[in-house]
Write the structure tokens for this entry.
Amino acid sequence: MSTEVLGSVLVGGVLVVLAVYVFPRLLGGATLICTRCEGTGQIDERWPDPSKPTGFHTATGACPKCKGKGRIKP
């Protein structure tokens, strides 16, 4: 095989990698809506916790799973 053919194969491989991995991430297509805050970025949760004086543990504010962005990367 000539050098020209190997160069073309190498350039083609790099373009395929860019098209499959890099471009979708730049365009934001590789993010999913956060399942904990349902995409809002904020949580307001209560669940039973007998050790607390009120009997409930509360979590409010920015979602810890997506850090308040509403979207997560897979």
